[in-house]
Amino acid sequence: YISDARPIIRQLDESAINRIAAGEVVERPASAVKELVENAIDAGATRIAIDIAEGGKTLIRVSDDGCGIAPEDLPLALARHATSKIDGSDLLNIHSFGFRGEALASLGAVGRLSLTSRAAGHDAARIRVSGSRIEPVQPAALRSGTVVELADLFFATPARLKFMRTDRAETQAINDVVKRLAMAEPSIGFTLRDVSGGGEGRVTFRADAETGDLFDALHHRLARILGRDFAENALKIDATREELRLFGYAALPTYSRGAAVAQYLFVNGRPVRDRMLTGALRAAYADFLSRERHPVAALFLDCDPTLVDVNVHPAKSEVRFRDPGLARGLIVSALRHALAEAGHRSSTTGGQ
Ligand code: ADP
Ligand code: MG
Hints:
It contains 10 helices and 16 strands.
């Protein structure tokens, strides 16, 4: 006896697959902004402008002056698992932000996306996709670079739409994403504008491209984002252990916070949220701070890309080290050393 109600196995169609993938990659407007700004950085942009309306729910527009996309490549840019950044043979050796070839396909599945671009030696062209329906490539007007416009995010996934927070909360999350990426890329100029209600809009964050050496540029950028006070109270960190390098700025214990809200950690230039790394930061300050106080720092851990796996999570904010103990040890020892030295300096000079 075979029941009529036996389950049938079906292949999902492209649009359903894209919407499912989008659920992992694009959680909220800020994740869309992150993907688009990372694409602009990967494209070698020196200036990136981000316009948002209603917390990114109705509009996210990212414009860059990067390498652009040739007209014939536009459909491929929107296709799932299509990327110009890796060849698939070496998932351990990733130097770019992107590599999954998933962002534009996902965004085009859950919103209305228009991609306008001009590559050197080509005319400008535009392609549109809405709920995974791709329209033919059209000629467009653009001097150089790329403009990606994403309207009505999640219109195709009403369940996700319901989970969006207030405009204010989503705007705040976008601000945070842009600031983290701006810390990682001091030589790129960033402008974030709120264009809710139309018109010129209001610039909510601006950082001009920094010049000078690594530490000068980073120090200026951090002063811009975390404030002069941080910059004046920050210790320069620069240490290596085996093939790991740690650099950046960490604030004196006297410049701490009541919550762990100003800890910016990067692995190979990628903003990450990682328990092991924040745990190391906490451990380093343990002798210098009471339990209710939290250190403020912007620290960059660089290593050969083969020693860290960034392929753990679709949103790519988690990483896995081949040797976590080495990373932890370097952070703890480098910070303790810098803090002890600063303490020693201020006590011998009778300083602050
Ligand atoms: P990934 O970044 O993982 O490659 P995406 O879906 O984000 O996947 O982008 C697909 C491709 O489209 C990229 O590999 C790149 O070739 C092209 N692309 C996307 N955004 C830009 C941009 N701003 N400038 C130039 N090329 C871009
Ligand atoms: Mg990408």
